[in-house]
Write a structure and sequence with these properties.
The complex is a heterodimer of chains A (374) and B (104).
Chain A lengths: L2 H13 L4 E5 L23 H14 L3 E5 L9 H10 L3 E6 L6 H10 L3 E5 L5 H8 L4 H14 L4 E6 L8 H11 L2 E5 L19 H8 L2 H4 L2 H4 L8 H4 L10 E4 L4 E3 L9 E2 L5 H7 L1 H8 L21 H7 L7 H11 L4 H6 L26
Parallel strand pairs in A: 1-2, 1-7, 2-3, 3-4, 4-5, 5-6
Antiparallel strand pairs in A: 7-8, 8-9
Helix pairs in contact in A: 2-3, 8-15
Chain B lengths: L4 E4 L4 E5 L2 E5 L6 E4 L1 H9 L1 E5 H12 L4 H17 L3 E4 L14
Antiparallel strand pairs in B: 1-5, 1-6, 2-3, 3-4
Helix pairs in contact in B: 1-2, 2-3
The chains are: A alpha/beta (374), B alpha+beta (104).
C-alpha cells in the first residue's frame, strides 16, 4: 500500500468511512473450482436497479475502492451497465474474474471504462493442472488469451494463484507465465472454508513442509531471514491495534444484499434490501462488535509470541467458532515461517506423558541420580 | 487574454474524504490528494465554466486573495493537474464528456 493510501486509510478509519468494499454480483460461475467456498446456485440476486441504487449509497458513504467479484461477474447480462454506473460515480473499480468470457470486444469496453485492475485466477501454467482445478477443459487457454486481449488494451492485469495440493509444484511456472505475459502475480497459500461453514475443502491446503518451502523461497518472500525471523515481542501500540481492515475501513456485500465485515468473515450484519448501506455500516451491533476488538483483547492470541507479526484472520477465526479466538490456519503459517508454535498450538497439544519423573525417595548412596529416572 | 476551461478526466477515480479529494490516475494508478483550493477547481471543472469565473465565484469568495494572483495560481495548478491527466485544460469549452464526473 502506498504511503498516501495508508494515510487516507488512517483518515477513513478515524472517520469511520468504508473506503474499500467488495461487492459480489453473482455466485453463479462457469467454472467449478475444487477449492471454491461458494454455493453457485442463484438464491435471488439483486436486480440491476437494486445494485445501481446500492452503488449510489456506497458513493454517498465514501466508498472509494470498489471490487466487483463473484462467482463469475461476466455471467451477469447487466455487468457492463453496472460497471458503467460505478464508473460514473467515479469509484476506483477493481475486477476479479476467471476471464473466460473476455474477448477483444469486452477488453476494449473495459479499457474505455477506466477500471483500475483486473485480477484473474490462474492455478497452473499447465492446462492439465489448471483445468483439473477449474473442472473446465480449455479454461487455461481461454483465460490466458483473455489476459493477452486485456494487456493489448493497456489494462493492468494481476494473476492470482491459490496454492493447494494439486498445484503446489507449479507456482514458479505460473510466475514465469505472468512474466511472459507482462503481468503481476500474487500467491496465496490459503484455501478457506465454504461460506456455509463446510470445512471439507481445507483438505486441499498444502502440507506444513510445503508451506515451509514456500516461505523460504527468496523469489517470493525476499529476505528469507527477515521473513522467517523469530517475532519480536509486541509493543503497547501493536496490542492496542485492530486485527485487520474488516469492519473498520472495509466490508463485503453478497449478491443477495447481505453485508459482512469481509468476504472471509461471514458474520451477518444487515441487508441492503432492508436498510441503507450506511446505516448497516455505522449502526449494526455486529459491525460495532467487530470494531471493538483490539489485539490485547484476544484471549489466546494476545499472549502468543506471534501476536505482533501474525496474519491472523478474524474471519477464519469466526468460522472456527470465535472471532476473538485464534485462526488455526494462520497459526500454522506462523509456525511454518518461524518454527515457533503459536499459543493456540501449544494449548491444543495433548498433554504428553511425563517422560522424566524424579521421585523423591531415599536411595542408597551408591545409586546415581539417573537411576531415579523412572 | 483567452479564457481557459477545465474538465475532469472521466478516466480517473475520485472521492471526497473529509473535504479533500482523493484522485487515482487512470494512467498509472498513482494516488493524489487535492488540497481545498484544488478540490474547488476539481469540483467546478464542468468543461463549461471558464477558469476566471471559477476563481472569482468560488475561490475568491472563500479565501482572502487577490483575484489576479488567484487566477494565476489556479491556472498553474490546473496545468499541473493536466500533466497528471487529472484535469483537461482547453481554450474552448469542453462539451463532450463520456462520464458525468459525479464527484461525491
Amino acid at each position: 500500500m502506498s504511503g498516501l493510501l495508508q494515510e487516507m486509510t488512517a483518515k477513513a478509519l478515524k472517520l469511520n468511512i468504508p473506503l474499500n468494499v467488495q461487492l459480489d454480483l453473482t455466485y453463479r460461475c462457469n467454472e467449478r473450482c475444487v477449492h471454491c467456498y461458494l454455493d453457485h446456485h442463484d438464491h435471488g440476486e439483486m436486480s440491476t436497479a437494486e445494485i445501481t441504487h446500492l452503488l449510489d449509497e456506497m458513493a454517498d458513504a465514501g466508498v472509494f475502492i470498489l471490487t466487483l467479484s463473484g462467482g463469475e461477474i461476466f455471467l451477469r447480462k447487466d455487468f457492463f451497465e453496472i460497471l458503467e454506473h460505478a464508473r460514473r460515480l467515479m469509484f476506483c473499480v477493481k475486477l476479479k474474474t476467471n476471464a473466460v468470457l473476455i474477448r477483444e470486444k469486452e477488453a476494449a469496453r473495459l479499457r474505455g471504462l477506466g477500471i483500475e485492475s483486473i485480477q484473474i485466477s490462474i492455478y497452473s501454467h499447465r492446462p492439465e493442472v489448471h483445468d483439473a482445478i477449474t473442472l473446465v477443459p480449455g479454461s487455461l487457454k481461454r483465460s490466458v488469451e483473455a489476459i493477452r486481449f486485456l494487456k493489448s488494451q493497456g489494462l493492468k492485469v494481476i494473476i492470482a494463484n491459490v496454492l493447494m495440493i494439486q498445484n503446489m509444484q507449479d507456482y514458479q511456472g505460473v510466475r514465469a507465465l505472468a512474466a511472459d505475459l507482462g503481468v503481476e502475480c500474487t500467491l496465496d497459500p490459503t484455501v478457506t472454508p465454504m461460506m456455509d461453514g463446510d470445512r471439507s475443502v481445507l483438505g486441499l491446503n498444502v502440507d506444513p513442509s510445503s508451506l515451509r518451502q514456500v516461505f523460504r523461497d527468496a523469489s517470493l518472500v525476499g529476505d528469507v531471514d527477515e521473513f522467517c525471523a523469530i517475532p519480536a515481542p509486541a509493543g503497547e501500540d501493536e496490542l492496542n491495534s485492530t486485527p485487520c481492515s474488516a469492519g473498520h475501513t472495509a466490508c463485503y456485500v453478497s449478491p443477495y444484499g447481505d453485508v459482512f465485515p469481509c468476504v472471509q468473515f461471514p458474520l451477518p450484519t444487515g441487508n441492503v434490501r432492508k436498510q441503507r448501506f450506511v446505516d448497516i455500516w455505522r449502526d449494526s451491533d455486529e459491525m460495532n462488535d467487530v470494531r471493538s476488538i483490539r489485539l490485547k483483547d484476544l484471549p489466546t492470541c494476545s499472549s502468543c509470541s506471534h501476536v505482533g507479526s501474525c496474519t491472523r484472520c478474524p474471519g477464519l477465526a469466526y468460522m472456527e467458532g470465535n472471532m476473538r479466538g485464534p485462526s488455526s490456519q494462520d497459526c500454522e503459517k506462523s509456525f511454518a515461517r518461524t518454527g515457533i508454535p503459536s499459543a493456540n498450538m501449544l494449548a491444543k497439544k495433548p498433554a504428553s506423558a511425563k517422560l522424566v519423573q524424579i521421585r523423591s525417595q531415599p536411595t542408597p548412596a551408591t545409586v546415581s541420580a539417573s537411576a531415579a529416572i523412572a | 487574454m483567452s479564457r481557459l476551461y477545465l474538465a475532469r478526466n472521466p478516466r480517473v477515480a475520485a472521492r471526497s474524504l473529509d473535504g479533500e479529494m482523493m484522485i487515482m490516475s487512470g494512467r498509472d494508478s498513482t494516488l493524489f490528494t487535492l488540497n481545498k483550493t484544488a478540490t474547488i477547481l476539481w469540483q467546478s471543472a464542468d468543461g463549461a465554466t471558464p477558469l476566471d469565473e471559477i476563481v472569482e465565484q468560488r475561490i475568491c469568495a472563500e479565501f482572502e486573495v487577490e483575484p489576479a494572483e488567484a487566477l494565476q495560481d489556479a491556472e498553474t495548478l490546473a496545468r499541473e493537474l493536466a500533466t497528471h491527466e487529472i484535469l483537461e485544460v482547453s481554450e474552448q469549452p469542453i462539451v463532450e464528456r463520456r462520464a458525468s464526473g459525479d464527484s461525491r
